[in-house]
Amino acid sequence: MNSRRLPRSFYQRPTLTVAQELLGKILVRRWRNTLLAGKIIEVEAYLGEQDPASHAYRGRTPRNQVMFWNGGHLYVYFTYGMHFCANVVTEEEGRARAVLLRALEPVAGVETMTRARGSDLIENLCNGPAKLCQAFRIGRPQNGTDLCGKTIWIEEDRHSAPPQIIRTSPRIGITSATHQQWRFFMNSPFLSRR
DNA sequence: CTCTGGATTAGCT
DNA sequence: GCTAATCCAGAGC
Q: Cα–Cα distance between A131 and A32 in angstroms, integer?
């Protein structure tokens, strides 16, 4: 029944690989008896101590501790005084690597997402890292959630094959390591930027 | 303790 | 294109 749910081993691989393979997968959340789901279409990789743009660049702190956990957990952080962003932790414990979820194509629970976001076009529900957190009601309590559990998980898309074409670009909104092409996305009307 | 600026967004010019 | 909103992590003293 949940055979499409990604196993721990999916996350315990090189971060750039996981980032690209997350494209086309479905993020699912069970929220008050309704299922929220969205196809992952845009992500960014953050590579821990070796990456100046990563929260873990200067080592472990109270905020970034979940990045150091085993792959397959959710790292949620608060920023700009009002927004949350969600990352998928990758590799093994102690590595501090993660993939930022930047945009989703809504596939289930659209009405609930619309209520969470305020009346809005479907294209505007999940086309940004803070927007998708608002649509999925992901906040502080969800930091550290085990993606191999029963509330938030990622599964294979039963309707379509993995994307044929994966595009890359520098990461958005950072000022260091801008030469790295660690943003991965597929063609879609639901991207955070066109 | 104080200070700086941020993996963003919405709304305006 | 510009910037306010609004909190707090992390750095430096």
A: 20
Q: Residue holding tokens 């309707």? A: A159
Environment class of A86 (CB within 10 Å of its CB; exposed 0-12, middle 13-18, buried 19+): buried
Nucleotide nearest to A81 (CA to C1'): C7
Report if CB A5 to strand B is under 7 Å: no
The Cα-based distances of A93 to A17, A18, A83 in angstroms read 17, 16, 27
Measured between alpha carbons, how far is residue A152 from residues A5, A123, A177 in Å?
10, 22, 31
Distance A78 CA to B12 C1' (A): 26
Give the CA A15 to C1' B3 distance in Å: 35
Angle made by CA atoms A24, A41, A32, in degrees to the nearest 5: 80
Hey, what are A28's tokens? 């699912």
> Model-level pTM greater than 0.90?
yes
Residue with tokens 């090189």: A14
Give tens-digit pLDDT for A60-102.
Answer: 999 999 999 999 999 999 999 999 999 999 999 999 999 999 9
Minimum-distance nucleotide, CA of A58 to C1'? C10
